[in-house]
Amino acid sequence: MGKVVMYSSVSVDGFIADENDQPGPLFDWLRGGDVPLDESGELKVSQASFDYTRAYWDQIGTTVVGRHVFDMTDGWDGKPPSGIDHVVVVTHRPAPEDWDPEAPFHFADGIEAAMAKAQELAGDRIVEVAAGEVGGQVLAAGLVDEVRMDVVPVIFGSGERYFGSVDAQHLLEDPDEVIQGNRVLHLRYRVRAI
């Protein structure tokens, strides 16, 4: 079984979206360099960000997101982002009526079902959990092994929190990696066992 990683770009004050539910400049670092991050050529980062991010992306087997993210992105038009094989959507609603049943997206009612399906699909590869409410729920359930953050030098003041509405203390180990890119600081922490 692969490890579970909670991940997102985040403002210095801990938000993954502003008060209008927009990412603002959080993803500007993905266009702030000269090294293509994927075959589209649209994403270009610094060499340091490429080395860190590409190696991570290549290990992801499944990404778990909430229905809110799925709806906001229009389900990435049925194509998982960043070359990921599968996406599991945590939702209490069925797939959209016009959804292509062949798309590698799976809909699960609750985090336990979502994580079981994600682990099954990922095998020994990483299960990535999007930060926010769903990520916070998975962390609170003790199912997250590692937290990765791409910290962007912006302060939102309010908005969608990286850890969602987690209301208990969780300790992380010292950072395993701290990588400086252009307009981003990549951090990786293991979650301390309770």
TrEMBL record:
Domain of life of the organism encoding this protein: Bacteria
MF-aspect GO terms: 5-amino-6-(5-phosphoribosylamino)uracil reductase activity
Residue ranges constituting the Bacterial bifunctional deaminase-reductase C-terminal domain according to the UniProt record: 3-170
Example GO biological process: riboflavin biosynthetic process
InterPro entries the UniProt entry points to: DHFR-like_dom_sf, RibDG_C
Name the record gives this protein: Dihydrofolate reductase
